Amino acid sequence: MNTSGHIYLTEDASHDAAIELINEEAFGPGRHTRAAARIREQGPHDLSLSFICADNGETIASVRMTPVMAGSVQGHLLGPLAVRPSHKSMGIGRELVRIAIEAARRKGSEAVILVGDPPYYMPLGFEKVSYKALEFPGPVDANRVLVVPMATDVHDRLKGVIEWRSAKVGGSVEIAQLDSSNGAWETSERLLKVGN
């Protein structure tokens, strides 16, 4: 997708170094001690739901989605979301969040969860999770735990431990690619075969 000269792409391994730099600029060295980071350390993020924004070939922003089990909800933890200082206040972060949420919805995620600033995220569709309903692997401000529910009774089921979960083996996955002729995302579903 191309918005105002910016191109939004699905993350791949070639973006790792730039994403690490962007996250370091945004969050500093303490980012690895946060409770959400501890969940992300438990297993890999989902590349098919993680996106970058490029400007003239330079990666300037990113958002990652990590599969989690939150109580009995199979969802995704959004973050980190970071934008280079030179490109802040241009709507890039909001667009990355929108793209990631829609991709998660298409993939069948029951919820997108994050620890973040309510005034920024609530206009993007996030709601507060019941106070201290989720147990993180470290301290969090319970007032900053937010969710976009995408299935019935999500709020009732968001009770208990939140931890990384393995992605499904087998079944189908949605493949997204950018149509260069019109800048729109095209998706298709492919069946994965496991074993023989």
What topology emerges from the helices and strands here?
Blueprint lengths: L1 E2 L2 E5 L5 H12 L7 H6 L10 E5 L2 E13 L2 E11 L8 H16 L3 E5 L2 H4 L5 E2 L5 E2 L9 E5 L4 H4 L2 E5 L6 E9 L4 E9 L4
Parallel strand pairs: 5-6, 8-10
Antiparallel strand pairs: 1-2, 2-3, 3-4, 4-5, 4-10, 6-9, 7-9, 11-12
Q: Report the span from N to C terminus.
A: 38 Å
How would a crystallographer describe the biggest sheet? 10 strands, mixed
Extended strand count: 12
Strand content: 35-45%
How helix-rich are the residues, as a percent range? 10-25%
Element string (H = helix, E = strand): EEHHEEEHEHEEEHEEE
Write down the Rg: 16 Å
Shape: globular
Query: Any low-confidence stretches, pLDDT <50, length ≥5?
Result: 169-196
User: What's the mean pLDDT score?
Assistant: 83
How many helices? The count is 5
Structural class: alpha+beta
Task: Provide a descriptive summary of the structure in words.
The N and C termini lie far apart (38 Å). The protein has 196 residues and is an alpha+beta fold. The relative contact order is 0.18. The radius of gyration is 16 Å and the shape is globular. The protein has helices spanning 16-27, 35-40, 92-107, 118-121, 154-157; strands at 2-3, 6-10, 51-55, 58-70, 73-83, 111-115, 127-128, 134-135, 145-149, 160-164, 171-179, 184-192. The chain has five helices and twelve strands. The strands form two sheets. Strands 1, 2, 3, 4, 5, 6, 7, 8, 9 and 10 form a ten-stranded mixed sheet that branches. It has a two-stranded antiparallel ribbon with strand order 11-12. Helix content is 21%, strand content 37%. The longest helix has 16 residues, at 92-107.
